[in-house]
Amino acid sequence: MQTIIFTDATSTVSNKDRGLNYGDGFFTTAKVHNGEVEHWLLHCARLIECAARLGFDELDISALTQAVNDYIQSVSLGVLKIVVTRGEGGRGYALPEQPQTTILLSQLAFPAHYNQQALQGVKLAVSPIKLASQPLLAGLKTLNRLEQVMIKRAMEAQTCDDVLVCDYQNNVIEASAANIFAIDNGRVVSPNLQNCGIKGVYLQSLCGKLEIEFIDITLPELLQMDAVYLCNSLMAIVPVIAIADTEFDLTTSLKLLHGLLAKESAC
């Protein structure tokens, strides 16, 4: 069974909910434009994969889609967050005998600064926090986001728009809340995410338009590439104009990106 809750000022979540107590759940965050969720099918695919890999009951995507459509039909521009938990029950970490999936739907304001960043680019620092390797959970947007909380906390002491995050093997993985890809002599490359990190919905959508190679990338290698970009479902694509002391030319980055996308659109 699944219960859908539309969050508002009067909504409450049980203090016994497994998402609250153990992070036993997952989520996705989507852009809403003119009453429609952008990349909805890819967001559904993410939710389905998370449910399957974490051993949740199968989600009723049809019912969820109808609830979402009703919920956002009057939204011209905003953000939809979908949080899925295993509900209540179970002794300690043990699973409930009859889990009741709980789905929380929330509407949030759209971050206005993303439009400006897409035009002006962003400056990245290198985070002192590194991501641990856990292939069992790699790629899943679970409710266990303490690494990202620590990354954002450390970022408060850094002068930057966002940070570049590596793993303990010093491979580049992602930004604080976005994927990374780069153009290198005409190739489009993105970090290997087999052991940690999340292959976001927007990056998934780009894979349907561009030939992207997922490879191990060290920071020195990334700094030698022609252009670097961040992407996620809300910001779309934002050029990187600096990583630490290394600068990237904004005009060149935008020209390379537009040329690449135009070339693929013509195919």
Automatic annotation (TrEMBL):
Reactions mediated catalytically: 4-amino-4-deoxychorismate = 4-aminobenzoate + pyruvate + H(+)
This enzyme's EC code(s): 4.1.3.38
Domain of life: Bacteria
Leader sequence segment: none
Subunit comment: Homodimer.
Family classification: Belongs to the class-IV pyridoxal-phosphate-dependent aminotransferase family.
Name of the protein in question: Aminodeoxychorismate lyase
Organism ancestry: Bacteria, Pseudomonadati, Pseudomonadota, Gammaproteobacteria, Alteromonadales
